[in-house]
Design goal:
Length: 172
């Protein structure tokens, strides 16, 4: 069975689930584009440093900001695609209702974590924007990197809630 066929078994058919799933996919694609851009910029900087003694100015600042964005934007899809590591050594032979209970607790904890991160990163964005904090070499406003992180964590929270309640009430 191919990976895409395995993933389709878990995808919901209702409008809300399809919307959340599509948003998770869009965020993951944007994350991939950010990673490819970061890799390309790093390659150009390394070649410029090695061959022309002229690296990309502020490449470390850009990589730092882009890494945070790429990681947070990929989290909702990793959850949606059931891509997180699950250690079930002790529960592999447990009763399905016990595993459902553990999955429910884990899903609620993920939603809570996503909600708290959304709140705190949004407050950090507001604080950094107000303080006019910027990177050292390029003078990029630090808060720019926080902008895509807020909806990413919010989507993580929403996806975790959807998956958890779908498993509980719809046999997802």
């Amino acid at each position: 069975m191919s990976e895409s066929a395995a993933l389709e078994e878990f995808l919901p058919q209702d409008r809300l689930g399809l919307l959340i799933g599509r948003l998770c996919q869009i965020f993951a694609v944007i994350s991939g584009v950010v990673l490819l851009s970061m890799a390309t910029m790093s390659l150009v900087s390394i070649l410029g440093r090695s061959l022309l003694d002229s690296p990309v100015l502020g490449d470390y600042e850009i990589v730092q900001m882009m890494s945070a964005v790429a990681v947070t934007m990929s989290l909702p899809y990793a959850l949606w695609a059931n891509g997180h590591v699950i250690v079930n050594f002790f529960t592999v032979n447990a009763h399905p209702s016990f595993n459902l209970f553990l999955d429910t607790v884990a899903g609620l904890l993920m939603a809570l974590t996503g909600g708290i991160f959304t709140w705190r990163v949004a407050l950090g964005l507001i604080d950094l924007r107000g303080s006019l904090d910027s990177s050292m070499l390029l003078g990029l406003p630090t808060w720019w990197g926080y902008v895509p992180m807020v909806p990413s964590f919010a989507l993580l929270c929403v996806a975790a809630l959807y998956i958890t309640f779908s498993r509980l009430f719809k046999g997802f």
